[in-house]
Design goal:
The structure is a single chain. This protein is α+β, with helices and mostly antiparallel strands and 270 residues long. The chain folds into two domains: 155 residues, Sandwich (Jelly Rolls); 108 residues, Homeodomain-like (Arc Repressor Mutant, subunit A). It is 46% helix and 23% strand. Strands 1, 2, 3, 4, 5, 6 and 7 form a seven-stranded antiparallel beta sheet that branches. The protein is globular, with a radius of gyration of 20 Å.
């Protein structure tokens, strides 16, 4: 991933251009005010890593919302009230994997406390052109996207269980955001200030399953979707699901479902 630009606009009464086409991912994250928007998607785009439902491509965005325009997309916009927002451009993921990891459209956020904290860090990071500063800004922007995806998955999974243990809620959110890459749970436990045994016991008490089981269920759910809906090879699917290689994914998949991946794909295509 690469950060191209971050500008913090304050009290912008109107946009200089009523519409613009962007060559990279472009995020408008609103702190104050609101604006109307419409996104015109490009004719061709990488396939989405996650399936629809699509996000709204037109509407009004204010605090608690952000608009994400994809590469090649056109954004039409008009301020409703003076606008304070973060303008962030970045690139990299879809060129590297051939699969689009983000859903363009109107992003909404329920965790207002985390959102305000993120915006405060972004304000402080503006203008820091050092490699460390740019990396931190990119991390903050991507954290907004991960927050939205985590909240969206919970909305789309009404059976998902919740907990009053804030630390374990954070742990579950981190696993959901990072399960598509190698994720040593011992390292995550250390990030949370817990030993692996403490982490496992506390997570099981909160959600009724171990963190390793939760991680596996997320990875296999994505593997099933990619087997059924794409032509990706098993090695490519393994890479997108956080497994070392296709052979290991095949072993885990067969043990869990009773079917080899090839047979599962064949049955889904009938």
């Amino acid at each position: 991933m690469k950060l191209n630009e971050h500008i913090y606009w304050q009290n912008k009464a109107r946009f200089d251009l009523k519409e613009d086409r962007y060559e990279t991912w472009t995020l408008f994250a609103v702190e104050e005010g609101s604006f109307r928007f419409e996104i015109v998607l490009p004719d061709s785009a990488p396939p989405l890593l996650e399936p629809p439902p699509m996000l709204p491509l037109a509407g009004e965005a204010g605090f608690g919302g952000a608009v994400l325009c994809p590469p090649g997309g056109v954004l039409r916009r008009e301020t409703v009230t003076p606008l304070t927002f973060h303008y962030v451009q970045f690139e990299g993921s879809e060129e590297q994997s051939g699969v689009c990891p983000w859903m363009p459209g109107l992003l909404t956020f329920e965790d207002v406390r985390r959102l305000r904290s993120n915006y405060a860090h972004l304000r402080r990071a503006e203008g820091d052109a050092s490699p460390e500063g740019r990396a931190w800004t990119l991390h903050l922007a991507l954290d907004l996207l991960r927050l939205h995806e985590t909240e969206r998955r919970r909305e789309l999974r009404p059976e998902a269980r919740f907990t009053e243990d804030a630390l374990m809620a954070l742990a579950a959110a981190e696993i959901e955001a990072r399960f598509g890459a190698p994720l040593p749970l011992e390292a995550l436990a250390a990030e949370l200030g817990l030993s692996p045994v403490q982490f496992t016991r506390r997570f099981r008490a909160a959600f009724g399953e171990t963190p390793s089981r939760f991680l596996k269920s997320l990875r296999l759910a994505r593997a099933r979707r990619l087997l059924g809906d794409t032509e990706l090879t098993l090695a490519e699917i393994a890479e997108r699901c956080g497994y070392e290689n296709g052979f290991y994914l095949s072993r885990v998949f067969t043990a869990e479902t009773g079917l080899p991946p090839s047979e599962y794909r064949r049955r889904r295509r009938v």
